[in-house]
Specification:
Elements lengths: L4 H44 L1 H5 L1 E5 L2 E4 H16 L23 H25 L6 H14 L2 H4 L5 H9 L5 H23 L5 H10 L1 H4 L1 E12 L14 H27 L4 H7 L6 E9 H4 L5 H5 L8 E7 L3 E13 L4 E11 L11 H20 L4 H11 L11 E5 L7 H8 L8 E6 L2 E13 H24 L3 E3 L9
Antiparallel strand pairs: 1-2, 1-11, 3-4, 3-6, 5-6, 7-8, 7-10, 9-10
Helix pairs in contact: 3-4, 4-8, 4-18, 5-8
Length: 503
């Protein structure tokens, strides 16, 4: 007996429903499969660096730069600023605020600065090429040396290949050829800019006007500072940690504040009564946190102190005394400051070259023996006699230094040290020889310091401190204008590749 039409229709509807369900399921699986495949392909492309190397991040007058190029500048800038700012290592820079007012993050700041720096160098290099400007011989040699170092320094850092070192240092998609190209742009841009800046000859009126307009920053302030500090100790005399609750620490800090402030007020009163600062410094030597007698600082540096406004006040007179307080939360500082003078520093600057023959190994904290000093002196005299027996010129002295000096910081530039004044932070014997008013160009002499023996060569007496400071400021302003004008004269655009920059 056959099924009724109603039952047959019901079975057909159920079968169609099941077929439709199977089709929907198949479609869903197919869609998921496609998404997975696309995601896998996208990941492969991303990891290959194809997008980072090829998508345009920045274009300057037809010269295209990828994310890899911008990433190089980003990494370099980050490395330079990391030593100045306390970046939180465990927190993304995208969550660390650079500008509280605008909310801009450190990541966005570094990315924008990197793009601007690359645009500036590219624009300067393009203009240099258009004007037929080429690298100086000195810069060619420096560029060649940088490339040579790139080809061998990876071994010393423990990398298995040069490319592994490059990618670890300058970004995971950086290549050797790309890095060399960026080096070439940087060197050409720098040389071209310096040539343009060197050609600018500011008249004396520019120096005078600039100084008058920026006297608060450029005047030299002479003052004495005696400081006391209130801070709760965290270890005892044996170096063992002291266990204290937050309440106990706060209470002890308040007690210490009262004691240290009382000492500062006591010192202030004695100074106002006519006591000499040097005598007070000796009397309170074991109680002071720090002291600086007749310190000389530019106004721009003074501005960081808690009593800067007081020091820079035009009503200040020699002998004025103040007590300033700086509470950091975990410690409190009390500064007794004595204003001594405000002046335009007319002291001439001095330039010397030196060759150091170190006494002993130079290990930290190790005082050389007399025997080591004697050995160093003997070698220094031999080198000096060797120089005198030759051409005895500044050029030959430069070569002598390059071949023999133990001062790694100056040997590479012929031992040259500039802008030395009586307040410079060099060892006393070295500084006093350099600033002696009897010095004349070409003077050579042996000088003993705590480091060993120096063969000193006097180069010249230069502009006074104030004029060099103004000259440096004028040059910075000229450079900013040159860079801005050069970039503005070209078509600069940012592309999708900027989105591929990573931390």
């Amino acid at each position: 007996m056959s099924a009724s039409p109603e039952k047959k229709a019901g079975r057909d509807d159920k079968r169609r429903q099941e077929e439709q369900k199977d089709q929907r399921t198949m479609a869903l699986y197919t869609t998921i499969g496609v998404v997975v495949v696309v995601a896998a392909i996208a990941l492969m492309i991303w990891n290959s660096g194809l997008l980072q190397r090829n998508l345009t991040a920045l274009e300057v007058n037809g010269t295209k730069h990828s994310a890899v190029d911008v990433q190089y500048y980003y990494t370099t800038l980050y490395s330079r600023l990391a030593s100045q700012y306390a970046f939180m290592p465990d927190t993304s820079l995208k969550k660390q605020v650079y500008d509280e007012e605008t909310g801009q993050t450190w990541f966005d700041y570094l990315k924008n600065e990197a793009a601007d720096a690359l645009a500036t160098n590219t624009a300067l290099a393009a203009r240099a090429k258009a004007e037929g400007f080429t690298l100086t011989e000195e810069s060619k040699a420096e560029l060649d040396d940088s490339i040579a170092q790139l080809n061998k320094m990876w071994v010393g850092y423990g990398y298995t290949t040069r490319d592994a070192f490059i990618q670890a240092s300058f970004g995971p998609y950086m290549t050797y050829d790309k890095l060399v190209s960026l080096f070439e742009i940087e060197y050409l841009a720098s040389d071209y800019a310096n040539a343009k800046l060197d050609a600018i000859d500011h008249p004396d009126a520019d120096f005078q006007t600039y100084y008058q307009e920026h006297a608060d920053s450029l005047d030299t302030i002479v003052y004495t500072q005696l400081a006391f500090r209130a801070q709760v100790p965290t270890t005892d005399a044996e170096g063992n940690p002291i266990e204290m609750t937050d309440e106990e620490k706060a209470a002890q800090l308040e007690t210490l504040k009262g004691e240290q402030k009382a000492l500062a007020e006591e010192v202030k009163a004695k100074l106002e009564g006519g006591a000499k600062a040097e005598d007070i410094a000796k009397e309170y030597e074991n109680k002071l946190y720090s002291s600086a007698l007749s310190r000389r600082e530019l106004g721009s540096n003074v501005s960081y102190s808690s009593y800067a406004e007081w020091l820079l006040d035009s009503s200040r007179r020699a002998g004025d005394i103040t007590l300033a307080e700086n509470d950091t939360g975990s410690a409190c500082y009390y500064y007794v400051a004595i204003f001594e003078d405000r002046l335009r520093d007319e002291e001439p600057t001095n330039t010397v070259r030196h060759l150091l023959v170190r006494a002993g190994t130079g290990a930290s904290g190790e005082t050389p023996t007399q025997e080591q000093y004697d050995e160093a002196e003997t070698k220094a005299r031999e080198l000096l006699n060797q120089w005198k027996a030759g051409e005895a010129t500044e050029d030959s002295f430069v070569q002598l230094v390059s071949d023999n000096s133990d001062d790694s910081g100056s040997a590479s530039n012929g031992g040259l040290i500039s802008r030395i004044t009586s307040s410079s932070n060099y060892v006393e014997a070295f500084r006093d020889w350099a600033v002696d008013s009897a010095r004349k160009a070409g003077d050579v002499e042996l000088v003993k310091t705590e480091y060993g023996w120096h063969i000193m060569y006097y180069v010249e007496s230069g502009d006074p401190v104030w004029r060099l400071d103004v000259g440096s400021s004028l040059r910075s302003a000229d450079q900013e204008k040159l860079e801005a004008d050069t970039v503005q004269s070209m078509n600069v655009t940012r592309g999708f590749g900027m989105n591929l920059i990573t931390e």
